[in-house]
């Protein structure tokens, strides 16, 4: 509700991955203050809002396509080692909100087959299991994601600083698009999300559900 002064500004992203018999499907989107900003369909990512100039955006598109192709190849390799004949669906929902009083809230949640799987506690840069009861794959994924700066400190910085600064620029511009210099990092986080999904899916497929 951009017209409501009490409503927070928000930048949110949703990214889905579905794996079945070694084949991967990808889709998702991002929105800035309620306006669709990016769309991911298969191997194609589209910039709906012109947040990046054409040359920078062309490089971003190539990076996304290359990653997705490599990810798909990895899944096929895992499937040969341990075939799974049922569908696995992962979803990442993440972003930040900026409230009228200047405070902000960032979040990152992962579900597996529509059940809470992992979440990222932004203030402490720690991953937490959300799966009900003991789940060896969730435990293993949590341990793996805690090993790397990219999936801890870097993610914390993006959600707490970069994401919020995008909204602060949006607020300062009173609804006009702003903060072009920060825009490349927006898709950088999308790529980071895909790498996290790759970790989670890869763990599950490689272990066959038991670590």
TrEMBL record:
Gene3D superfamilies: MHC class I-like antigen recognition-like. One of its GO terms (cellular component) is extracellular space. The chain crosses the membrane at residues 185-205. One of its GO terms (molecular function) is signaling receptor activity. Keywords: Glycoprotein, Membrane, Transmembrane, Transmembrane helix. SUPFAM superfamilies: MHC antigen-recognition domain. It comes from the Eukaryota. GO terms for biological process: negative regulation of coagulation. This is EPCR protein.
